[in-house]
Amino acid sequence: MKRNFRLHFIVAAILLLILFAADLLTGSAGIAPGEVWDILSGSPADTNSSLIIWNIRLPKALTAMIAGAAVSLSGLLMQTLFMNPLAGPYVLGISSGASLGAALCVLGVSSGMTAGMAPLLENLGIAGAAWAGAAIVLAVIMAASRKIGDNTVLLVLGMMLGAGIDSVVLILQYLSDEQALKSYIVWTMGSLGNISGARLWIMAGTVLAGAAVAGALCKPLNLLLTGENYAASAGTDVRQTRSLVFAATVLLAGTVTAFCGPLGFIGLAVPHLARLFTGTADHRILVPGTALYGSCIMLACDIAAKSAALPVNAVTSLAGIPVVIWIVLGNRRRGF
């Protein structure tokens, strides 16, 4: 890695630390920076402030970092695989599959449509059911990819599958009671809270596994940028690479969607920002860079969401829309 990239990542890492500290300081309860430092360093501090930092703000900031990196990496993988600048982490129906799992857990049980599955769904919880739904959809796509060699056909298949699943979710919403519908709508708004302890460790471990797969795919992803035929002639197993990309995507985006709900536009926008800021299409630079920028942007969105008392998904959408407009207008098309 050249020195300019090292300097670039050092600056980005410093920005990440600043945003992480700002996120810990932001909230309805005013806690001075010195008091936050005392709490984190183990010095005597106010009990209520300690509970707020350790049980609420610190887990939420860590969740923002993990979620931002995960959905951004999955977006990068999708855009490279499909050679489509508008491809995002949910393009293959991951979000729809997760939504169906959550809907069956929250809405299906209440409506009585899944009475025989009720005990299982209740034990799984919303996160587990959402992850299972995302994984099942990706399993279907991966099975189809073994018979379909055309990425464009796979893309259309994923979109159509997602549209069909969304219709089922609408039926469940129509048949559900008011309380269950409210719980589901809150899930769709996205949340970085209520993820601590074992849930945070599970999420972090699964995302780390997905990130490791993405890192191992840097060379074949670089070759895919030259076209599938050239990549195959250079020794890349395109079908295996595609399957690994799908697996990494469900580990990254599927897990985050399950625990945090849909986080719109981050996965679509951040890879383009990473290409712009780094000035390269080399995935050896883009993979860590995209993860770093994704963490920074998600932390910034969490700070804005807490300051304005808004759902985090509303803030991520508002932040990502200008980037999407920029992509559509074609001002820059880096790496494609």
Give structural notes.
The chain is mostly helical. It has 14 helices and no strands. Helix 4 (94-111) runs parallel beside helix 6. It is globular, with a radius of gyration of 20 Å. Mean pLDDT is 84; it is low at 111-123.
Distinctive features:
mainly alpha; 336 residues; 78% helix
Secondary structure layout:
Blueprint: H1 3-25, H2 33-41, H3 47-82, H4 94-111, H5 118-145, H6 151-175, H7 178-188, H8 198-216, H9 218-224, H10 228-233, H11 238-260, H12 266-278, H13 283-308, H14 312-329
Shape: globular
Helix content: over 70%
* Structural class by SSE content: mainly alpha
Number of helices: 14
Mean pLDDT: 84
Q: Which regions are unreliable across 5 or more consecutive residues at pLDDT < 50?
A: 111-123
Quaternary structure state of the chains depicted: single chain
Taking the sheet with the most strands, its summary is: none
Gyration radius over CA:
20 Å
Total E-strand runs = 0
Strand share of the residues? under 5%
Task: Please give the alpha-carbon distance between the first and last residues.
Answer: 22 Å
Order of helices and strands: HHHHHHHHHHHHHH
Summarize the structure.
It is built from 14 helices and no strands. With 336 residues, it is an all-alpha fold.
